[in-house]
Amino acid sequence: MGKLAFLFPGQGSQRVGMDAELRATDAERLDAHLGAADELSGLPVSRYVSEGPMEALTRTDVAQPALFAVSAALAEVAADCGLEPDFVTGHSLGEYTAAAAAGALDPGDAMRLVCERGRLMAAIQDESPGAMAATGGVSEERLGELCAQAAEGDPLGPANLNSPRQIVVSGTVAAVERLLALLEEEEGARGLRLPVGAAFHSSLMVPVREALRGPLGEAEIRAPAVPVVANHSGLAVDSAEGVREALIEQIAKPVRFADCVRSLADAGCTEFLELGPGRVLSGLVRQVAGREMNAVAADSRAKIEAFGAR
Q: Could you tell me the end-to-end alpha-carbon distance of the chain, in angstroms, rounded to an integer?
């Protein structure tokens, strides 16, 4: 059997009721994390998770602590079940969960950072509105050429390099709209604007990165017990400073998730457990590394136990 990687999803995987299955078995553990989310964000995160409405749960300053709480609780359940990863990684926000799961951050400190990150990223949507769009049917090289053509001096470029079949771009509203028009003329290409109001993982996020630099610099970060594969580079880091740099740099740089998966596969990982709602990351693993990879999504104790019993 190959090595095991834990994967932690990012914003966009949230759904109302995503705590239901875990609450049936691990309510105390779950409520500890959701209670911290409520306290540190000053928002009724736990109520939005359980009851909605979805419009409220989708808010950046709510979705980020909500997803961290649920995924962190699931990581603890996985440890209870005797599962020990050889590597961890996450997608955007999920990289913070990965750092906590690897022991580089205490859960309380991680939640504090996640709440601040969510607040700053929500605020930037009003200060510097932007847009994002999912693209497909076009190579990374060709997409780069189209972005250069559509930019016309505005910030525009890849934000999420998820797989050979999916790249998300980020930039000003005008530049993204120009790119979508070019994709309509490109044979086999497709583009879809995403329902977000900011250009995440782009140069427009530099103010957020700089605002987080202080809190991340002051946070107690330890060397992770297992390597964290970093979003901004796609490479494994195993030092406290490597983790700190990864959490800072990912804010305004593309999430190179496909490279993260390739690094994990090259390191011998053939088992992947996605801990959180949805199954986006486990699907991307198979797109990048092949369908022979055992990539499973788990949002309950029962699913984690089933994975461990394989």
A: 11
For residue 61 the two structure tokens come to 């300053």
Nearest C-alpha neighbor of 296 from the set 230, 288, 280:
280
Q: How many domains does the chain fold into?
A: 2
**Which residue range forms the structural domain that includes residue 168?**
129-193
On whether residue 252 sits in a domain, the answer given is yes
Between CA 23 and CA 26 the distance in angstroms is: 5
Sheet with 190-193: strands ordered across? 156-163, 166-171, 131-136, 190-193
Of 260, 265, 307, the closest CA to residue 3 belongs to 265
- Chosen domain end from 163, 193, 223: 193
- In this structure, what are the phi and psi dihedrals at residue 59, rounded to the nearest 5 degrees? -55, 135
pTM above threshold 0.85: yes
Same domain, 303 and 162: no
**CA–CA distance from 137 to each of 12, 116, 166, 187 (Å)?**
22, 36, 8, 8
User: Rounded to the nearest 5°, which phi and psi values hold at 171?
Assistant: 175, -165
Whole-number Cα distances in Å, 176 to 81, 199, 300:
45, 10, 38
Q: Please check whether residues 76 and 154 belong to one and the same domain.
A: no
Residue 147 belongs to domain with CATH number:
3.30.70.250
Yes or no: say if 277 and 10 are a contact pair by the CB < 8 Å rule. Answer: no
Give the pLDDT confidence score for residue 95 in this predicted structure: 98
pLDDT tens digit sequence for 64-74: 999 999 999 99
Residues 310, 178: Cα–Cα separation, whole Å: 48
pLDDT for the residue 197: 85
What residue ranges of the chain have pLDDT lower than 70? none
Task: Name, in order, each residue with C-beta under 8 angstroms of 307's C-beta and a sequence gap of 6 or more.
Answer: 83, 273, 296, 298
- Indicate which residues carry an active-site annotation: 92, 201
Q: Which residues contact 266 (CB under 8 A, 6 or more apart)?
A: none
